[in-house]
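Page 47, continued from p. 46.
Same chain as before, 254 aa.
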Amino acid sequence: MNYDLTQLLQDWDYVPGQVVARRFQGKDGREKLQLRVDLGVLQMNAEGRPDGRRPMGMESWYHVYGARLEKFREDNDGDDEGFTLAAEECAKLQQEAIQYHHRYICLFQLEDYDAVVRDADRNLEVFSFAAAFAANEELAWSLNQFTPQLLMMRTRALGTPALRTKKFSAAERHIEEGIEALEDFYRDHDRADMIEQSGELHSLRHWLEEARTKKPLSEQEKLQRALDEAIQLEDYEKAARVRDALRKLHAPEP
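Result:
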């Protein structure tokens, strides 16, 4: 077996500062993703756990610990008081979440936005699970610290296809919801000071402004803008005509 990857790497250049990814059918019949990094190539499955492993015969460690929680509840009349995730278990969840992080970065570059949302939602579930059951706040934060970047990517995966299909109102709503989710996250973790410092929030707010400039103006918005310009130029005859047009726009149907 030839283990040398030199030819593969020479045929596929690494581009600093860019995500370079591709997808293909593996010899096992499963779809694969590859991410070019400076020292080589990361390969992962397009579905399921990215590295293809099945811890304890289940899809992921998250599924393993989720099953343990359900068993704990069955044994305790539905109560989960006393169920905790130890440091080793949180470390496994974190390592696993990073695999999904690498994958949704690739998927975003490949414009598979539904799959980005799928993996982002999966990691959000894991972070909530850790927040509820980690043995202490430090262990919970080892996963939840990635939430801002995750929420930003999820928002972009929802907003980008909406903008491309000219669904401007839907795109605006997705971005506003992403901003609100990020602000809530910082408040919930007593980091309200980060609301004005967060790079993720700054990026989404800037994107929202760009999206709003691309959105076509309604007839009312066009007339209101014309009215504002007429008043600013002291063109009162035009202002009167625009006001009449606005009144007719809002007049009830006969």
